[in-house]
Amino acid sequence: MAELLINKKRFENNLDIITTHLKDKNKLGIVLKDNAYGHGLEEIASLAKEYGIKSVFVKNIQEAYKIQNLFEHITLFYGIPNTPLPANIHPTIHSLEQIDLLPQNSKVELKINTGMNRNGIMPTQLKDAITKILHNKHDLVGVFMHNGYGDDLMQDFDNAQNLFQLLKKEVLYLAQNIGFQKPRFHSLNSSATLRSLEIDDDLVRIGIAAYGYCTANFPLEASKNLQPIASLWADRIRTHHLPKGAKIGYSGVSILEKESEVSTYDIGYGDGLFRFDETKIPYYSADGYLVLQRTSMDCISVLSTKDRICIFDDVTKLAEIFHTIPHEILTRLSPFIKKTIIYE
Ligand SMILES: *Cc1c(COP(=O)(O)O)cnc(C)c1O
């Protein structure tokens, strides 16, 4: 049965790298959204908890409830629940209207749009939003923004950070004047964190770097020792001994150049592994076996006789082949793939 092995040492190595960079372990928040980027929400949450992480970020309320007992702060980026929430679960407010939809006494985080123009209230709505939050008897746990330029050496990166600095001042001013507790501030994802030398926020939101990748498109010294934590393995279904010229799989796209042993393995695009077809450059498993095009929904044919092969131990190559980023290769992995934590 296909299996995703999660390497605990590597995960800790990645978090150590970020902690060293932050100089303060308490500022380390981990993003566990989308089934922990395909790695298994419960598995990664347990490792994060063991590491001492107190704040995590998930996609929605379903994910939050799955790890409800593990963290002091669990923020959901999306969805406005209409039932009362445990005190450690924080919905994100993206608009003034959402404030009225939440059950009273919710402990919320407020997101501000600082230039990505995607989610969050507009900076000019800050005072109105906070007034409304307090009026509805919610607690303002955090105020945050998302810098969409962490991977790029563009002025927009600094513009967003500078704007957030001003907004933080405004929040502190309102806190004093209206009388509410200072919320926590956060704005930086993986690459934005690793490129920032001074971090004045209370918290960072580390996603992809915890899983071992950095997608900055400029050299980033602090990221060079990150290690991918997941390797995907598949088991042999059966082997055929086939003559030269034999065709393999749908439409017979692969034709054997010589007599060969061809085995099928139990992973396919139905498990979230992207589909290899004749338009793609050839892919070799991490242990060096050629994957024959086209791959099927639940199995792939490989020039190998091994009982188990390693489909990947680093998805960088797959991301290149499919013109995407490691995030997409990983988050597509089916939640049904078995996850096992390994210790070295
Ligand atoms: C996904 C996400 C992150 C993490 O981004 P990485 O680049 O994976 O570190 C941080 N903040 C928000 C709002 C996100 O949606």
CATH architecture of the largest domain: Alpha-Beta Barrel
Number of strands: 18
* Mean residue pLDDT: 97
- Report the total helices: 10
The low-confidence parts are none
Taken in chain order, the helices and strands follow as: EHEHHEHEEHEHEHEHEEEEEEEEEHHE
Distance between the termini: 21 Å
Return the CATH class of the largest domain: Alpha Beta
Fourth CATH level, the homologous superfamily of the largest domain = Alanine racemase
Rg from alpha-carbon coordinates: 23 Å
Question: SS-based structural class?
Answer: alpha/beta
Structure notes:
The radius of gyration is 23 Å and the shape is elongated. It has 344 residues and is α/β, with parallel strands linked by helices. The site of pyridoxal-5'-phosphate has 11 residues, from strand 9. Pyridoxal-5'-phosphate binds next to strand 9.
Short description:
The protein contains 10 helices and 18 strands. The protein is α/β, with parallel strands linked by helices and 344 residues long.
List keywords for this structure.
TIM Barrel, Lyase, Ornithine Decarboxylase, Chain A, domain 1, eight-stranded parallel β-sheet, 10 helices, eight-stranded mixed β-sheet, 2 domains, alpha/beta, 344 residues, 23% strand, binds pyridoxal-5'-phosphate
What is the topological layout?
Layout: E1 3-7, H1 8-22, E2 28-31, H2 33-37, H3 41-51, E3 55-58, H4 61-66, E4 73-76, E5 89-93, H5 96-101, E6 107-111, H6 126-135, E7 139-144, H7 155-179, E8 184-186, H8 190-195, E9 204-206, E10 230-242, E11 247-248, E12 254-255, E13 260-265, E14 283-284, E15 290-292, E16 300-302, E17 308-312, H9 316-321, H10 326-331, E18 338-342
This protein binds pyridoxal-5'-phosphate.
